[in-house]
Amino acid sequence: MEVAYSNAMLGLNANLHYLSKENVDAVVRAFKFANKAPRGQFRVTGEPYIIHPVAVAKILASLKQDAVAIMAGLLHDVVEDTEVTQQDIHQTFGQEVAHIVEGVTKFSQVQYSSPLKRESENYRKMFISMSKDIRVIIVKLADRLHNMRTIQVMPENKRKRLAHETLDIYAPIAKRLGMQMVSIELEELGFAALYPLRYMILLSHMYNVSAGQAEVLLHLEKQIRLRAHEVGLEVLDVSTREKQLYGIYRKMSKRKSFNDLLDVYALRVCVKDIESCYAMIGILHGMYMPKPKSFKDYVAAPKRNGYQSLHTVLYGPHGTPIEIQVRTKEMHVMATQGVASHWLYKTGQSEFNCKKHQAWFNQLADAKSTCASDAMFIDLVKHTVFESELYVLTPRGKIIELKDGATVLDFAYCIHTDIGHKAQAAIVDRETVSINTVLENGQTVEIVTCDSVTPQSQWLDFVKTSRAKASIKVFLKEQVISSQDQLG
Ligand code: MN
Question: Cα–Cα 20 to 30 A to 470, which of 27, 72, 258, 445?
Fold first, then answer.
């Protein structure tokens, strides 16, 4: 067993080359701690327990995350699965790691009860708001990614639930944060788990089509490199893009034919700088006829998640469309890793200029301050991604959106005016609390009403939402009027 454990750690070690010696030591300490804690446990897969946290840590290392995130990845299940407490983690590894572990644990406690489609968006918002540190989401996504990679060992019903949750919640969150590499893998794994047969059929079709395309793609690449060379434009990389089966499947349900979707050449060209991107488009449009209105400039106008590239579609040999993306190396990192790349550049390994290139940051706020501190960055991400701050659940799992700082009473009025008027207390996550208790993200709230309760003017001192305030004021006003009436 010891051999297996140290092998697992060795595998991780090899991925940590970008961290300082000090940081690697800290990661090793977290590994030993995690390894000692749940000794003797085995996963459903039959592997030693430590395999899972190490795999999560490896995913985080492949995203070039900092030591804190990797340590949290190693420790993420420890509090839930063993005697180790939150305070133990705090004392041994400090507040940052403890915070992330706590956040990830909270994630798993929210029961996602396969809601209606429109509810998923609220879940996503809630998860993001719950995460005071964006690394909570990154660690959770790495955790889910490994669970999905090993999903075959799960019983059927659990497999389906995980797959649904992954497609509805986690893949879109990854996409929203610009982490395309993670979102695509989550989608493919989720799709394969949910509809294994459809997945297999699509896969074999795609395999055939790709085999037929290989030669033409090679020819195209040669042509592009040749033309670029003629005008002295440096080409860093030309690659064929893998087609995503889930993406094709979704488009098929919009009644597009299978062959139309697959019979497309897809290429990506990587060049040195922004000017070269536009120059490359010029070269491409000179080679083949561009499809009208197909040119998209996401360099000048980046997508909401920070994505930048130039897109164009050409009519290639035999009129088959060639979809081409042109981008710089920096844009490529941003496109595939998104928010997760923030820490990559903070480690100072690259001369990446975040003011100049990172549309994501520019878009968030004045670029000047964006890289100043992590806390600020995280805050900016949260505020830009979702304005609303507080998401809580009804006992039936419906998500209620409130203002930050909202209380139990605000929640009650949000459900119904009569419930607000009669609110006496609440049960929040199985604990009875008073109506002025401030709510936190992800809590489940049940209001306790009592017929003898009536709204009091003091209530106005602590409610936050305008809806609650207005309802209380209206009630108090009517009360004054009716008592005046009684007095004659
Ligand atoms: Mn886990």
Answer: 445
